[in-house]
Amino acid sequence: MGRLKARNKIQTEARAAIATKAVAYIRVSTEEQAATGHGLETQDKAVRAFAESQGYELVDVIGDPGVSGATRPAERPGFGRILELAAAGAFTVLLVYKFDRLAREIRYAVTTVSDLAEQHDVVIRSVTEPIDTATPMGRTLFAILAGMAENERFAIRDRTAGGRLTKADKGGFAGGRVPYGYRRGTEGGLVVVPEEARIVRRIYQERRRKRTLRAIADDLNRDGIPSPGGAAWHPYRVGYVIDNPKYRGAVEYLFRWNGAETHVLQPGSHEAIVG
């Protein structure tokens, strides 16, 4: 009994020593930073100010810049470091700007909160949302909030997919890699790049003469003409140019969403390079 009491006392003292130690996690995807302005700098200032107001000793501020919230937290470099610190008992409170910084998918967000609490006695606090995950009610509210964030992400994906399909149906450039010979215009469409367009026409002319893809690629390399990626031409790159309907003034897409496929092949609104 004496040994148990002594051990409990040591654990209690150790716990008290880190009770006010916090680590902050900040994350932003490239798209979010451009669209909302809630970049890493904004989040950094907010979590530091909150830590000071609550009397927390901020051990570290760890970020995952340009990382999507759809990825598992444990698979992100920054959050992996947080898990290491949690396992080492370096802190007891994890601060985030918003709970959706953890994850956009509810299963990832909820399991992350549960794992940190059960395995490392770490609670998570949002500096902009009044929810305390240290309490049962707080965890319930958090699960509701995480579910709303997930629904929002799916709604955004639906709107994006619908917008791309509508654009493609009207012959517009609906995203993806810009083909060699074009650049993206100010209105989001395709604009011909004259120097590259000459190479595209050359490839088509050579193919009409029944030359092989290998022979065409060899000639382009011999003449010192860089490929779309800046490296050497290969037969598959030549084949991509020949098979791409955008060069003939059309757009073609295969949209996959919610288990369904929609094929679009329409006359494009951009200028054709070859007839």
Describe the structure.
The protein has 275 residues and is α/β, with parallel strands linked by helices. It folds into 2 domains: 2-150, 3-Layer(aba) Sandwich (Rossmann fold), CATH 3.40.50; 166-267, Putative Large Serine Recombinase, Chain B, Domain 2 (Hect, E3 ligase catalytic domain fold, Alpha-Beta Complex), CATH 3.90.1750. Helix content is 48%, strand content 17%. It has 9 helices and 8 strands. The strands form 3 sheets. The chain has a 4-stranded parallel beta sheet, with helices on both faces. Strands 5-6 form a two-stranded antiparallel ribbon. A hairpin with a 2-residue loop joins strand 7 and strand 8 (260-267). It starts with a helix and ends in an 8-residue tail after the last strand.
Q: Helical content, roughly? A: 40-55%
CATH superfamily of the largest domain: Resolvase, N-terminal catalytic domain
Quantity of strands, as a count: 8
Q: pLDDT under 50 segments (min length 5)?
A: 4-18
Strand fraction: 15-25%
CATH architecture classification of the largest domain:
3-Layer(aba) Sandwich
C-alpha Rg, in Å? 27 Å
Note the overall shape: elongated
Class derived from helix and strand content: alpha/beta
- Could you give the distance between the termini? 91 Å
CATH fold-type name of the largest domain: Rossmann fold
The largest beta-sheet arranges its strands as 2-1-3-4
Tag the structure with descriptive keywords.
single chain, 275 residues, Rossmann fold, Hect, E3 ligase catalytic domain fold, four-stranded parallel beta sheet, two-stranded antiparallel ribbon, 17% strand
